[in-house]
Amino acid sequence: MTLRRTPPARLGLGLGALLLVAGTAATPMSGAAAAAAPELAARASACATPADFDGDGVDDVAVGDPFADDDKGSVYVVSGQKVVPVAVPGLARGDGFGWSARLAKVDGDACADLLVGAPYADVDGEQDAGAVYVVYGGGTRPPLRLTAPQPQRLAHFGWSLAVRDDLLAVSAPYEDDGQLTDAGAVYVRKGAGQFRRISQESDDVRGNSEVGDQFGWSMAWGPKNALLVGVPYENDDGAGRQVEAGKINSGSAVFIDDVFTSKITSLKLDSPSDRNGDRYGYAVAYSEGSGYAISSPGSGSVQLLNPARKVVRTVTQGGRQAFGFALAASADGRLAIGAPYGGGVRVVSWKDAAEDRKLTDADGLFGWSVAFSGNKLFVGQPDARPAGKVAVAGRNAEALETLQPPEGAEFGAAVSG
C-alpha cells in the first residue's frame, strides 16, 4: 500500500507542496469496535443543530489528518474548544483516512453524520483503489464502508466528496476510462441506493475523457440534483480527443443538471484566460441562492457565478500563491478563498462586492483548507508545528483562535462544517 505525495511541480508553482497527487459495495463495520466514543449513543437524542455530530447541542466541524497514526489517517470532530478523535476499525497503514471529510445528515435522524475519504485504501486486492466511510452521528449505528462497484487500482475513490442531506458524490479522479489513464470519474447515489458512475464518456456529458484530465478532482452539489464537477487538468485542445495538445492543464468545469435522470444534460465551461497551467476547476463551491464559484489557482483567480451560471464577478490576487486552492461557501452568500502559499485567506461576497476581508498567518500553508460553520470560519494549516493546526475566525473577531490535536501529523489537511 503506498501513500504518495504529488511532486512539488504538480500545481506548476515551483513551490514545495503537500499536493497528493455502479452497484454499491457497502460493508458495515463491527458495532463494538466502531463506536467513535462510548458516550455518543447516550447523546444521540440531544443533537440540536444541523452540524451537531456528537449530541452536545452545538455545531461541530470535521478535521482530517490523512498521515496520522502511522499513515492510517485520522479524523477529529471539533466541538467548541474540544478536539475529539473519531475511531473507525479496520484501517491499514497508508489508507489516507481523512484526506476528505464532510458533515451532513445522511440518514435523516437528528444528528449530523460524518463521511470520510480514504483514497489510498486497498480494496479487494486493488492497490489504492480507495474507500469512503460513513460514521453515523450519535454513535447509534456502526460505520459503513463504501467502495466503487468495480474497484480499480490507483483510482483513489474518495479523493473528493460532495454531500447534501442524503445525496452523496464521490470522486475517483485517477480512475482510468478504458485505455485512458487518469481520465477520472464520479459516483453518485441517493440514500442507500446504488452508485451511478459518470465520466466524460457518459452520454451527453460535455467534453471527452482524455489521459490525465482527472474529472472529479473537485465537486459541489447545486440546486436539487445538479452537480458541478471540476476538471483542472483538462487541456483546451478543441473538438475531439487529443493528448498533450492545446493549452495544457488549462482546466474546465462541467455542470450536470440532474445526475439521476436517465438522459443527462450538461454545460461545460473552459478556463476564461485559456492559458497553460490555469487549473480552472481546481476547487468549486455553491451557495444556495447566491451561486457558484470556480477557481483557477494557476493564474490566481476565482469566478463567482449567479444561480443561472453567468459570471458576475472575478476575484484575483497577484503573486504565485495558489489563490483559489481551496474554496468554501457560507449559507449567507460569503466565499472563503484559500491561497496557502503566502496569500492567506480572503472572504468575499456574492451579494456585496465591498465585503473583502483578508486573514493571514506568519508562515506555512495557512489556507490549505477552509470551511464555514455558523458565523465562524475554520482555516487549515497542516504544516504547522508540531502536528498541524486549524485557525478559527469569528465573523467580526480581530484575533484568530487556534486548535491543535493531542497528536498527529498534518491536522487541518481537510476541514468541513
UniProtKB/TrEMBL annotation:
Name of the protein in its database record: Integrin alpha
Stretch forming the signal peptide: 1-35
Gene3D superfamilies tied to this protein: Integrin alpha, N-terminal
InterPro entries, A to Z: FG-GAP (IPR013517), Int_alpha_beta-p (IPR013519), Integrin_alpha_N (IPR028994)
Example GO biological process: integrin-mediated signaling pathway
Keywords: Glycoprotein, Integrin, Repeat, Signal
SUPFAM superfamilies: Calcium-dependent phosphotriesterase, Integrin alpha N-terminal domain
